[in-house]
Structures are given as C-alpha cells and as structure tokens.
Here is the input.
Amino acid sequence: MNAFKRDKKEEEEGSGNPFQNIEKTTVLQETRIFNDCPVDSRKCTHILTKILYLLNQGEQLGTTEATETFFAITKLFQSQDVILRRMMYLGIKELSTIAEDVIIVTSSLTKDMTGKEDLYRAAAIRALCSITDVSMLQAIERYMKQAIVDRNSGVSSAALVSSLHLTKIAGDVVKRWVNEAQEAVNSDSVMVQYHALGVLYHIRKSDRLAVNKLVAKLTRMSLKSPYAVCMLIRIAYKLLEEEDSSGGASSYSTLFDFIESCLRHKSEMVIYEAAHAIVNLRRTTSVELAPAVSVLQLFCSSPKPTLRFAAVRTLNKVAMSHPAAVTACNLDLENLITDSNRSIATLAITTLLKTGAESSVDR
Amino acid sequence: MEGLLLEPTLYTVKGMAILDNDGNRILAKYYDKNVFATAKEQKTFEKNLFNKTHRANAEIIMLDGLTCVYRSNVDLFFYVMGSSHENELILMSVLNCLYDAVSQILRKNVEKRVVFDNLDIVMLAMDEICDGGIIMEADSSAVVQRVALRTDDIPLGEQTVAQVLQSAKEQLKWSLLK
Here is the structure.
C-alpha cells in the first residue's frame, strides 16, 4: 500500500517515464553482471527489460553488439527465476534475427521444453523455433510432434503456431506432422482447435479434394471455438467460389447451408463472418441474401461501435452488387448518419447514396 | 467482388500498440514486414493514429488501409491493427484481451506510471496474446496466468496453509498500522 502511495506521489510530481533516458551503450555495458554467480534475478530482469524496451523503441543493434548481448543472456540459464527465464526467451526471440550463432542455446531450450515446468515449456518451444534453422529441425522434430498433442493447451498451441511459422523456412517439414495436428483439432481447448485447423488447412490447401474432405468432416462435428468456425467459414467460402468458377456444383448446397447455419451461431463474431461471406459470394440470389442482410440490419442498431462499423461496411459493399436488397435497411442507415464515429457515418452516407430514393432525401 | 475476403489464414493481427497520452510509444509490435517496415514509418503511423483517435472515443477507425480498434484509459491508449478486410470483431476480441490482461496485471491501476513499473510483465503478456501475427490466446485470465505474475493473491484453493497464514498475518499487520 505504501509503495503504491509513493508511486502516486512521484507521478504527481511529474517524473514521467523512468525508461526515458537510457542509453544503448550503457545498458549493453550493464549486461556484464549477467556473468555474476549467483545471478541477481531482479537486477538482471530489469536490465533485460531495458534492452527489450530499447529494441521495441526501434533502436538498432549491430551484429556484434547483438551477438555479444545474446551470449550474455545465455549465461542467465543458470537462474531458476520464472520471470527472468521468460524474459530471456523474449530476448532470444528478439535477437535471433540479428545475432550470430544463436543455435548454441538449442539444447538449453530443448531441455526447458521437455521439462516439468509448464510455464517454461510453451514459451521455450516458441523461442526454440525462432532460432532453429532447416538443418537443426530434424533434431527437434520428435519433441515438436509430442508437444502438438500435449495435454497442456498452452504447450500444444505454442507448438502448432511455431510449426506454422517454420513453414516459411522449411515448407515440407510440417507436412509430416499432419497426424498430430489432426488429433489436436479434437482438443477441448478453444485456441488449440483454432490453431490446429490453421495448420491442417495450410498443409492441405493445395489439394482441393483433401480440403473438401476436411471441411465436410469439420462442419459435421460442430467446432467449439468461434475462431475456428470463422476460419472454417472462410475455407468454405473459398471452396464455393472455386467450385463456381470451375462449373461443378456437387457440394454447393451443403457448404452454403453450413455458412447459413452459422448465422444462428451464438457468437457475434461468427454470425458476422457468415453474413459477410454470404453477401460476398458471387452467385447468391436475393433470396439467399435476405437472412444475411437482416442480420446486418440488426447489427446496425447495436450499442457497440465495432459491430455497427462492421455491418455498415459490409452493407456498403452489398449496395454495389444488390442495391435492392439493402433498401430494407435504409431507415437504420439514416440513423447512422449522425453516428459519433465518423467512419460509420461516412460509410452510411455513401451506402445511402447508392440505395436511397428521392423520398428519403427530405428526411 | 473478387478478393474481398481474405485467404483463410491464422495470420490475423498486423500490429498491437500501447501509446501514452502524448502519442509516444510505450510498447508496439508489428507482425507483417509489408506494413511499416521501418521504425520511422511505424512511429509516423502511430502519431497519425493517435491524432485521429485521442479525442474521439469511437472504438474503431480505418487508417492507411488498416482497420484499427482502440480503447483508452486515463493516460494510456491501446490499439490493435488488422487488414482492412479482417473481421473487426476478431480484432476487437484481441483488443479486449490485451486491455483486460494489462488491467489485471496492473491490478486495475491502468496508468502509464504503473505500466512502466511492470513493463516486463506487460511485455510478456503481449507476447502471450499474439505470436508473429497469430492470435495465441484471447482469454485475458489465461494470459495473466501464463505470464507468471508475481502474485500475492493466488486463489484461496490453490494456496498452502502456510501461505494463507502468512497473508492473514500481513493483513492483520496492515490493519493495525493504519
């Protein structure tokens, strides 16, 4: 309590930003104490925070500076302080692109990733994947596969997301992890399910048949995660568009029905994604459009500015292709002209210009 | 109407920022190398964004081809940026998570000064929310749990007897000292 009061006072005196006057060279000098044994974890955390703050402010480090700092950080592995360890991972990630020979921490990180402390494991995986290059990937592959199906959702998510990042440097590797990703889709965790779907789609996206199968399976099992459902709607939308252009219409109605059923989802995020997809489909008839437009119309009178913005932005687009469908919303749109958010007001006006009739000009 | 919907991908967030009440950066992260490649471009954008948003508390704005959702408190401004075709509600859920997580970390004192006192934890929280543009976690309590906050108020059920006694002693001490 006292400490808090003191802080308040200092603030009133206008001391402002305690990190304002730190100098790169001084901070880098301070990293010398990282070599001390035993490690003073509070002090080291503070110095590490300063380094990360500088980097975040856009300060550039040269290769030698970065490498020296990186090696200094590696000395801190002897400490068991949770926060310090986590800050080290952050530092490793930040410096991994600038410093040289970063792979020397591979074994330390692998140890943390397979260790007992859950708080370390997820973060260690992400740090490890940021320093890994193609040649090292083989060595950690086994652990990655295990991590993807780990019971701890944080660990599993971290592994899935990291493997997606890895596809940038090693496109093919992640394809071998498809079974694990498939298992993770069934996870109870909302985020794991979402990440797993993202990885699965990435692996399969060039094979249309496989994507079709994936979507058919997932639409039936009703995913728990609203994020995953949004993603699934996007995939379904893409399939519909492709099918349309290739002339086939085999699964058109099932896919469309799935998107339409999402209009009745309990999450607003999903409802909006579905409505957005329906109005953007090239082939939609005005009958198919109607439920999506009425959902958007409802959103127009929501107290949440973001929801109103999303709705009016989408209606604005529909007004270009199907002006008649939007006329029903004219009254709601007129109310938005005076909206306190200027983007919403502007979008409402331009939409009305496309749909408005003479009768509404007077109002 | 082609190309209006995004390619299905997990890469959703283009950037996250916490600015102070002068529009200066406290922390910011950009995840897409194609948007604002240099620190200078980023800061110009932030200034611009701040000028457009600090008075109007309107929650959402389109700027430089990005959809930005924002929220402010006393002397702090929180922003989440995404592509202009992105589902705004998804971005909003990330912003809410960022704000709520920071608020819990600072124990409801969402102020610049307190952010600087806990800068390390706030950095960790941002890292837990978004990894390279992918939403890692959108549940603020899960984020707070993962950043290993130096906490004295662990839920009662998870404390050991010794810890409970200790905190009871502390509370008694403080109430006597008042």
